[in-house]
Design brief:
The protein has 247 residues and is α+β, with helices and mostly antiparallel strands. The chain has four helices and nine strands; from the N terminus they run βββαβββαβαβαβ. Strands 4-5-6-9-7-8 form a six-stranded mixed sheet. A three-stranded antiparallel sheet has the order 1-2-3, with no helix packed on it. The protein starts with a strand and ends with a strand.
C-alpha cells in the first residue's frame, strides 16, 4: 500500500492499496482480480478548484494582477506511482444521489455537479466542467466511438488534442478517468465497454504527452446516468467519459 500525505501539514490524502488475487473454483476457470483500491480520507484538504478551472479554460492564475476575479465557465459534471491501472469496483456502484447546485466563493458562475445546471462549454466545446466529490470534473459528452467498441473516430482527434492541452496546464495533478454507457444491453457488457473506453481515453492522452502514471481509470457502466434513458439524445448524454482532477 502507498500512503500519500500532504507535504505541508502531513495529513493523509489517500491510501492506494494494490490488489492481485486469484480464485480457483472446481469446474470453472481461475478468476484473477488485479488492480488497486483508493481509500480517500475525509480530512483531506481540497485543492484550489478555482485555480484548476482557470487552468483548464486557459485563464491566467487568480493571483495574477491581470486575471479576472472569477473565471466564468460551466457546470462541469476521481494516484498511482507506477503504471496506469484499472480501478475495479467490488460491486456495482449505486446511482448518484441528487446533487445540489454549487454556490460560494470557490465556484465559478454556473459551476455545479453533473446534471444539475446548464453546462458552459470550455475549449471550444471540447469539454464541460462540473463540481465532483473528489475534485473538478471534465465532462466529455458524445465522444464518437465505433459502435459497441472502444476505437475513437478520426473526427475526435482535434477534440482529444484540446483536452490534452488543457490537462497539461496542471502538471502536478493526477486524473481519474471514468467511462459511462447508456442503459442498453446487459450490465456486464456495459461495465466492460465503459472500462475499455476509459482506457482508450487514457491511451490517447498518454500518446499526447501526459505521463501514464498520472492516470487511473474505471468503467461504471450505466450506474450513474445524468439524464433519463428514454430518448436517443438523453442516451447520448449518458454515454460519456468523465475526467476528475483529483484534489
Amino acid at each position: 500500500a502507498d500512503i500519500v500525505i500532504d507535504a505541508e501539514d502531513g495529513s493523509t490524502l489517500f491510501i492506494r492499496e494494490t490488489v492481485d488475487e486469484s480464485y480457483t473454483y472446481r469446474g470453472y476457470p481461475v478468476v484473477r482480480l488485479k488492480g488497486f483500491i483508493l481509500h480517500f480520507h475525509r480530512g483531506s484538504l481540497p485543492g484550489d478548484r478555482e485555480r484548476v478551472v482557470a487552468a483548464l479554460v486557459g485563464l491566467p492564475p487568480a493571483s495574477s494582477p491581470t486575471s479576472p476575479a472569477t473565471p466564468a465557465t460551466t457546470p462541469m459534471p476521481a494516484t498511482s506511482t507506477t503504471s496506469t491501472t484499472s480501478v475495479m469496483p467490488a460491486s456495482p456502484a449505486s446511482p448518484a444521489s441528487p446533487a445540489t447546485r454549487a454556490s460560494g466563493a470557490d465556484a465559478p458562475a454556473g459551476f455545479g455537479q453533473p446534471g444539475t445546471a446548464e453546462p458552459v462549454p470550455a475549449a471550444g466545446g471540447a469539454f464541460e466542467l462540473a463540481r465532483g466529490e473528489r475534485g473538478v470534473v471534465m465532462l466529455l459528452y458524445d465522444l464518437r466511438f465505433v459502435a459497441d467498441g472502444d476505437e475513437l473516430l478520426a473526427s475526435e482527434r482535434g477534440r482529444l488534442d484540446s483536452i490534452a492541452e488543457a490537462l497539461k496546464r496542471l502538471p502536478d495533478s493526477a486524473f481519474l478517468v471514468e467511462g459511462h454507457t447508456a442503459d442498453l444491453g446487459k450490465p456486464a457488457g456495459q461495465y466492460e465497454l465503459s472500462e475499455r473506453r476509459a482506457r482508450r481515453i487514457v491511451d490517447e492522452l498518454v500518446a499526447r504527452g501526459i505521463p501514464e502514471n498520472r492516470f487511473v481509470y474505471r468503467g461504471l457502466g450505466a450506474d450513474r446516468p445524468v439524464a433519463p434513458n428514454d430518448t436517443e439524445a438523453n442516451r447520448a448524454r449518458n454515454r460519456r467519459v468523465e475526467i476528475t482532477i483529483l484534489d
